[in-house]
Amino acid sequence: MGPTRALAPRERRWLRWLPAALILGVFVLDLLTPRGIRVFPLLAAAPVLVAPWLSLTGTVATGGAALLAAVLLPLVRGRLPFGVDDIVPFSTFVTLTFLAAVVNRLLARERRQLKNAREVAEAVQRAMLPSPPGRIGPLAVAVRYEAAAREAAIGGDLYAIHSTPHGIRLMIADVRGKGLGAIRTVNALLGTFHEATLRAPDLPGVVRWLEERVREAHVAEDGAGLETFVTAVVAELSADGSTLCMANRGHPAPLLVHRGRARPLEPGTPSLPLGLAGLGTPDVLPDVPVDRYALPEGAVLVLFTDGVVEARDHRGVFYDPIPRLSRPLPPDPDRVLDALLADLYRYTAEHLDDDVALLAIGLPRDAVDGPDGAPAVHRREADDGRRV
Prior knowledge:
Layout: H1 18-32, H2 40-44, H3 46-50, H4 56-77, H5 87-128, E1 135-136, E2 139-146, E3 157-164, E4 167-175, H6 180-199, H7 203-220, E5 230-237, E6 243-249, E7 255-258, E8 261-264, E9 290-294, E10 300-304, H8 306-309, H9 321-325, H10 333-347, E11 356-362, E12 376-381
């Protein structure tokens, strides 16, 4: 698993220049205003304004620089800076600088506590989602988990991949919500998926196990009911990586990256997320549509959670991963995910609003190509194996 990055937004880098700009602006304003108007209160407020953003040293230095400016301004005006009328303003200045330093220390402590909480959350997340082996049979595997920078709550993003007698089964999913409820559901789904991959004879059977587990979670949450659901892609690759069977339960479509193009593998029949499939008929599980593809050799299958496609730029426009992956890229899942994440951080100014989980599978070189190297859709099956 790649390291989680918690980067400060680029737009905050200008804050280091805020004290100088503020003091210089007040200095110029004083020179442009009539002699009867004093801008001293603006200088006194300077350390208070910067206290939430700068270090203690920066806050005190801002107070000192502002005080120096307050001394120089009367000299520029042609009068002494320490008259009788200046005693109270200068005392207020010292008091405000002291209060700004206290506020700075309190906020710094809060930031440290938030950082510690975020680090604990990330450690718990990594413990729940250990990195799979780099290779499973002929397939290369890469995963990434990127935690959102704005909060310390653990998200509900998860992935899993297992080699089984039925093929290589994998899942990527996103549990609604964060916190302890999401943790319980993630743990339950990971355990259920591990058991189902070994015991269920087919992919629809795996999905049914997961559906039943989410329903049990509804009951365990004392009637939280329909507010709890999970979007997921549950898939099965043949041992040689030439065939993909996939059940998409309301999740962003995976991308097949091949020969400089990225193609979404959209489901033939849209399905509700796990936990919502039994709406209206809670005692009956509906059929599980499964899409089947013949995969091209040397392609990379990329699965991700909605933190990718719901990321926005400064204008509020959603991120689209297809253009970035539709460029010449080596058929290496690690490098594909690195390229995608680098572009995502660039697009969002290094700030994610939601957690992001990614799983990439590098297909072997001897898989079967469809026409023009595209994935060939063989058929879409329901869980009883009939054509639909």
